[in-house]
Automatic annotation (TrEMBL):
The keyword Nucleotidyltransferase applies. Keywords: DNA replication, DNA-directed DNA polymerase, Nucleotidyltransferase, Transferase. The keyword Nucleotidyltransferase applies. It holds the Pfam family DNA_pol3_delta. Its EC number is 2.7.7.7. This is DNA polymerase III subunit delta. Residues 20-137 form the DNA polymerase III delta N-terminal domain. It comes from Methylomonas rapida.
Length: 343
């Protein structure tokens, strides 16, 4: 069964499925959809939660181990499997197909992963999941869908944002829903419940997140370390949330990984850029980064992104901003970072 994110809450009220797959490159929607499933599972007494993060590809045996084991303290379990690359590989594909063929009792498997391309959606592992579970594919919101999302988000805080105000807000955040959620929270703190006008949004919403985060990724791709660190420190000082910065960095690094992988397999550069929507003005930046970083180094950057994500969510100890700095250093000066952090 396939659902849109806005259909998920209603589906969860009708009952839980044994398996959920949430994929997409929009972190707020992916995170909130996963949170909704975890909350519904807790309400249904799935009190044990085991997290498996597929960072290196050798963690797949853990899935079978968790599926075969039951806690002596609880009967129901949620397996929370993170697949940042969205590519399980041969071993992962076999593990997922085997899991779908022998669904364990009293267990829910929740998989979150990056956006899946059309080839991945035709793969046997994806088809196996689609046959027995629920697939939620998260797409970037644009146009009227984005305006509707902003208005629903404001309504959840007891605010009513008019159409013109929503359009201004949409133009400022340029599809960055994490930034949008922050701006709505700020509007709520400043003005409380009630109506939000176009003027109110113009006065309250800064556009620093839009510009600075993208300047950060441009500097990172270009390998300009000093400028990258200056922007990163500026974002931190201005109170920009770490998830917003991580969203921008991880999106760029996943794109690098996918482009590098396709090029390594012999694909034409222009075709690969077109496939991954690398437009003309960003081609040179992408080329600079591809020349500087090999596939192993880019994969290591994705692992650092996963580490920052866990630190932001309080799932592991450490300072997320320090890890974001490590990501910038390892991107701009991979040889130096290897000596310092063993990346």
């Amino acid at each position: 069964m396939r659902l849109k994110t806005e259909q998920l809450d209603a589906a969860l009220k009708q009952g839980l499925q044994p398996l959920y797959l949430i994929s997409g490159d929009e972190p707020l929607q992916v995170g909130e959809a996963a949170d909704a499933i975890r909350a519904a599972a807790r309400m249904a007494d799935y009190t044990v939660r085991e997290v498996i993060s597929i960072d290196h590809g050798n963690e797949w045996p853990q899935l079978a181990m968790e599926a075969d084991s039951l806690s002596i303290f609880a009967e129901k379990k949620l397996i929370d499997l993170r697949l940042p690359s969205g590519k399980p590989g041969a071993e992962g594909s076999k593990a997922l197909i085997r899991y779908c063929q022998h669904l364990p009792a009293d267990t829910i498997l929740l998989i979150t992963c990056a956006k899946l391309d059309s080839a991945s959606q035709k793969a046997q592992w994806f088809q196996a999941i689609d046959n027995v579970g629920t697939v939620v594919q998260v797409w970037p919101l644009q146009g009227q869908e984005l305006l509707n999302w902003l208005q629903r988000r404001a309504e959840r805080k007891g605010m009513r944002i008019d159409h013109d105000a929503a359009k201004i807000l949409a133009s400022r955040i340029e599809g960055n829903l994490l930034a949008a959620a922050q701006e709505i929270e700020k509007l709520y703190i400043l003005h409380g419940t009630g109506s939000i006008s176009k003027t109110t949004v113009e006065d309250a919403v800064a556009d620093s997140a839009r510009f600075d985060v993208f300047k950060l990724t441009d500097a990172l791709l270009a390998g300009k370390f000093n400028r990258t660190v200056k922007i990163l420190n500026g974002l931190s000082a201005e109170g920009i949330a770490a998830p917003v910065v991580l969203w921008a960095l991880s999106r760029e690094i996943r794109s690098l990984f996918n482009v590098k992988t396709d090029l390594k397999q012999g694909a034409n550069t222009e075709s690969v850029f077109k496939k991954h929507q690398i437009w003309d003005k960003r081609k040179q930046l992408m080329q600079d980064a591809l020349r500087r970083l090999n596939l192993t180094q880019i994969h290591a950057l994705l692992v650092l992104c996963a580490k920052a994500d866990r630190e932001i969510k309080g799932q592991s100890q450490g300072d997320a901003w320090e890890t974001l700095f490590e990501i910038c250093l390892a991107s701009c000066r991979p040889d130096f970072a290897k000596q310092r952090f063993r990346v």
